[in-house]
Amino acid sequence: MEIYLIRHTAVQAPGICYGHYDVPLADTFAAEAAQLRPKLPLPPYRVFSSPALRCQALAGAVATEITLDERLREMNFGTWENRLWAELPRAETEPWMADYVTLAPPAGETFGAVQQRAAGFLTELAATATPEPTLIFTHGGTIRALVCHCLEIPLRNAFRLQIDYASVTKLRWEHGRWQLAQLNL
Description:
CATH class: Alpha Beta
Number of strands: 8
Number of domains: 1
Strand content: 15-25%
Oligomer: single chain
Helix content: 25-40%
Order of helices and strands: EEHEHEEHHEHEE
Largest sheet: 6 strands, mixed
């Protein structure tokens, strides 16, 4: 089974903390979507998307039948959502940045929780494997969490992985384990 993890296109949110918050897409959407298409397999394929509008827009540019799944959302930054990073209290952000795997922003979730819910989705997907490829439109943090899960990389190292906007990361389920076929294509 082949899984294509696709990050949404660029957004217009300079300096803003966003995860669950729906931010507007950048003016480059059409060009980024066009550059993405040749990187994807030909249909038929199954398509899943985060409910975030930025992911749904890109999924809709590629496919007509899309299944939304909450487990594919980006991290919930709680009370920090839609606020400028520079204006967030350092007393809250500094401890979190030192241990974002186990500490959550106020009323938000930990990065470990992101990995847990996304890995649950992937486990379920592997259990219902089909011959056609699966496209998953999601977020940079979610893709990093999944790659770390699949390769058993410590989650604290997730942000060493570069995941560009409108990029493709390809995973393959073979012989009961995940293999990384492509990263950030």
